[in-house]
Structure formats: C-alpha cells, structure tokens
C-alpha cells in the first residue's frame, strides 16, 4: 500500500487572516514575509535551488492572501486564488542561512484577476536576489471555474491598488522571454 505524500504547507496555514482596518494606511509595497534560506532549499551548487525561489514567492503570496482576507475559512466556503502564470527573474544567489526579505505590490486587478509583482532581497545588504511577476485568478473551487471576487475583497483590492499605483512599474513587467531574433518566435 502506497503512503500518501505530504502536501506543501506554507508558513501561514492555520494563522487566519489579518483584520482589515479601513482607516489604516496600506504600505507600498507590502512587506509581509521574510525567511532564512533553509538547508533543504540548497542544491548541489551550494545555493538556493531555482524551484525554491518559486516556493518562497508562493509563501509571500499566501501572506498577501491573508492580508487581503483569504484564509482557510474563506477556502472552506469554496473560494481561492490560483496562479495561472509566473515569470521569475533570478538576479543573485542566496546561500544557506542567509536572510530573505520579500515585498509585494499589486500591479492591477479586475473582477476576477490579480496581477502581482514580488521582490526578494537579501535581508542584510538589501541586494535584489530575484523577482516574480504573477497573474492569479479568483476561483469557485466547487465549480472549478473563475468567478468574481466578493464585493468586500474587491473593495480591499481597490484600497491596495490606490496605494500601490504610486509605485513605479518595474522594467521587467509584461516583458516576453526570448533571444533577439529568437527562432522560437518564428511561425512554422
């Protein structure tokens, strides 16, 4: 009999969500997650493995979900956010034990989608280690399809958007990947 594999657990599971205070200023960008590089994230090159950068950005997204009001209780009622596209830009290596500090900005949103930008920086020297641009979709998990955010979450997204609109759009946002003259783009 095969054993059931353990599922991926974020550091925020079971913590609920932060209470939303309408009068509280929204930080721009949000700084909701930090972590040291764990030993199990280090690969044969002696630094954090590429898949673990995505894992840490996912934990940062989960911190944002809880800031917004999406937690286990929300998911139990059939709502969640699913990532539909991610672009990672690795800039510098991080070794075991080094501190990581993440920020997140809301680039855009509509009734069903959220466009996020993450930065991962070294916790001591503030060097940019990596960025991630993500498109997420609000879903009804029972029906298995996209659905609009409830009004309360749209209102919160609007408040975050207003604060984050003052930030400059990073130069990598929306850029396709390719080599100039890339043969992969030619029609066959």
From TrEMBL:
Membrane-traversing stretches: none
CDD domains linked to this entry: 4HBT
Cited InterPro entries: HotDog_dom_sf
Superkingdom of source: Bacteria
Region span, Disordered: 168-188
Listed name of the protein: 4-hydroxybenzoyl-CoA thioesterase
Organism of derivation: Streptomyces abyssalis
